[in-house]
Structure formats: structure tokens, C-alpha cells
């Protein structure tokens, strides 16, 4: 459901509603000052990336059938950095891990979350993006900052039963937490002024804020909130267990792309109002 919502939000995000005061910002998950030593890649002739094609803006099919998206462009940049040839093949979401296990591909660049359960089957690079939580308010909101004090007795919309609701109950106990069945209802409540703020998945909210549905109603308020206990460790590129050579090569390439500014360029291309 989360993936479907993100896809729909991206598809309607065609109108330029980004606010002038929204500063374009690309996060970094690597120490760009660190001197990097390229690992031995002599045993790698090519990298066969696997992804899917129905999760824009991360991966999707163009009208001519070609693959595009943030994940796809990042994979291509990695191959260029490593000076290796590569292929990027599409698979259904449920076939990604089986295709890696049966040696149909070498690495999954498909927005797989790094979890304890996933680690039992796969090895991961360092995260190349995370899914933080953020607050959104109406443009004319008088709320000064996203702090428990500033949100004292304020009504906050949130999806019922989500990690975001648990976060609010833990750190914003004096707020009026108002749960909704889904994100659409929570966003509508904010837009119509029934609540004073909304807290949710920053990636989905960034698509909404930049889309026709929001119509320029709202802005991010501070953040992001990245507590791994609630929002996870992030998303990494997955390889087979114990494939240390490829994992180290991918980690090196990601860090180099960050140092060169390539990662930031790709990030801002797909996230004009970013989650961070």
C-alpha cells in the first residue's frame, strides 16, 4: 500500500507548487571528507542490477519501455564510477529476491528496506536513502517549531497504527493526536483546517506538497526525524549473503558519488521538495 500511494502521488505531482522558501537540500549518508581506497574489483566483469518498474520516482518504465528513475540512474552512475559494464533488468517485486538467489542478477537496487529480517537473506550496502518522518502545517500556521512545547495541545493528524503514531505518543504526549485510517484522509484533514498539523512519511509528503492535490496549501515544519527505532535504518543495495567483493565495490562507488556531488545531483533531480 505504501508503494502504491507513493506511485500515485508521484503521478499527480506535475504542477510546480513548490514554495520559494523551500530550500532544495540533498542529504548525505557518507563522510565526504574521508579518503577512500578503491577495493579490488578485478573479479568483477559486470554488474547485473535488478529493479522493478512501477514505483516512481524510484523506478518506472518510460513510454518506449526503457527503465528510468532514481534507482536506475544511481545504478548507472555506480557502473560508470567503477568502470564496469552493467545491465539493469526489471522484475516483479515478489520475484526480486528469488531472482538474485537463482543467479539471474547480482544486486537489487529497488528500494529494499534494511531490516533484521532482510539481513537474514541478503547483505546490504550502507543506506543510500532513508524514510524519515516530518511535520507539515498550513502555510499560515502560527506554530513556530516542531517541538513538543510548540505542539502542546495542538491537533496532529497521523495514520492510525503507524510508526508515526507511535513516535508522536512517545515524544509528543501533550499533543492532541488524531489518527486517520489512511494518509489521504490525514492530508485532507490538514488541508481543510480540521487539524493543525500532520505527521507522516516524508517521502510521500514531499510528493504531495509538490503536487496538484496539495495546491500549495502547506509546508514542511522543521525535521526530519530519523529515529531508527521508529523509521528504520533506510534503504540499501542488496547482494547475496557473503558477496563481500561486490558489496564493498558498491559501498565505495556510493561514497565516491557523494564526494563528487553526483548523488546530490541525482537526488535533487527526483526530489525537488525533498524529504529532508
Distance between the termini: 22 Å
The number of helical segments is 10
Major β-sheet profile:
5 strands, mixed
The coarse overall form would be: elongated
Q: What is the helix content? A: 25-40%
Explain what the structure shows.
Strands 5-1-6-13-7 form a 5-stranded mixed β-sheet. Helix 1 runs parallel beside helix 7, helix 2 packs across helix 9 and helix 2 runs antiparallel to helix 10. 33% of the residues lie in helices and 23% in strands. The protein is elongated, with a radius of gyration of 20 Å. The protein is α/β, with parallel strands linked by helices and 276 residues long. The chain folds into 2 domains: 138 residues, Periplasmic binding protein-like II (D-Maltodextrin-Binding Protein, domain 2), CATH 3.40.190.10; 99 residues, Periplasmic binding protein-like II (D-Maltodextrin-Binding Protein, domain 2), CATH 3.40.190.10.
Q: What is the topological layout?
A:
Blueprint: H1 2-12, E1 46-51, E2 54-55, E3 59-61, E4 67-68, H2 70-82, E5 85-90, H3 96-101, E6 107-113, H4 116-119, E7 122-124, E8 133-138, E9 155-159, H5 163-171, E10 176-180, H6 183-191, E11 197-201, H7 202-209, E12 218-225, H8 228-231, E13 235-240, H9 244-260, H10 262-270
Parallel strand pairs: 1-5, 1-6, 9-10, 9-11
Antiparallel strand pairs: 2-3, 3-4, 6-13, 7-13, 8-11, 8-12
Amino acid at each position: 500500500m505504501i508503494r502504491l500511494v507513493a506511485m500515485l502521488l508521484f503521478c499527480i505531482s506535475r504542477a510546480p507548487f513548490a514554495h520559494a522558501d523551500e530550500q532544495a537540500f540533498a542529504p548525505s549518508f557518507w563522510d565526504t571528507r574521508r579518503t577512500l581506497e578503491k577495493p579490488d574489483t578485478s573479479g568483477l566483469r559486470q554488474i547485473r542490477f535488478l529493479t522493478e518498474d512501477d514505483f516512481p520516482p524510484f523506478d518506472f518504465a518510460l513510454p518506449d519501455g526503457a527503465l528510468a528513475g532514481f534507482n536506475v540512474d544511481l545504478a548507472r552512475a555506480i557502473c560508470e564510477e567503477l568502470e564496469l559494464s552493467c545491465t539493469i533488468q526489471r522484475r516483479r517485486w515478489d520475484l526480486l529476491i528469488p531472482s538474485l538467489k537463482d543467479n539471474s542478477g547480482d544486486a537489487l537496487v529497488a528500494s529494499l528496506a534494511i531490516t533484521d529480517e532482510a539481513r537474514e537473506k541478503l547483505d546490504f550496502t550502507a543506506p543510500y536513502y532513508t524514510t524519515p518522518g516530518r511535520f507539515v502545517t498550513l502555510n499560515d500556521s502560527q506554530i513556530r517549531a516542531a517541538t513538543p512545547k510548540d505542539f502542546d495541545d495542538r491537533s496532529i493528524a497521523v495514520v492510525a497504527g503507524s510508526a508515526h503514531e507511535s513516535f508522536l505518543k512517545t515524544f509528543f504526549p501533550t499533543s492532541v493526536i488524531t489518527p486517520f485510517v489512511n494518509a489521504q484522509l490525514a492530508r485532507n484533514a490538514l488541508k481543510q483546517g480540521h487539524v493543525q498539523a500532520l505527521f507522516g512519511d516524508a517521502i510521500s509528503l514531499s510528493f504531495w506538497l509538490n503536487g496538484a492535490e496539495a495546491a500549495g496549501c502547506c509546508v514542511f515544519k522543521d525535521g526530519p526525524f530519523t529515529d531508527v527505532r521508529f523509521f528504520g535504518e533506510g534503504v540499501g543495495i542488496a547482494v547475496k549473503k557473503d558477496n563481500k567483493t561486490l558489496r564493498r565495490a558498491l559501498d565505495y562507488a556510493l561514497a565516491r558519488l557523494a564526494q563528487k556531488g553526483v548523488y546530490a545531483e541525482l537526488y535533487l533531480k527526483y526530489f525537488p521538495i525533498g524529504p529532508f
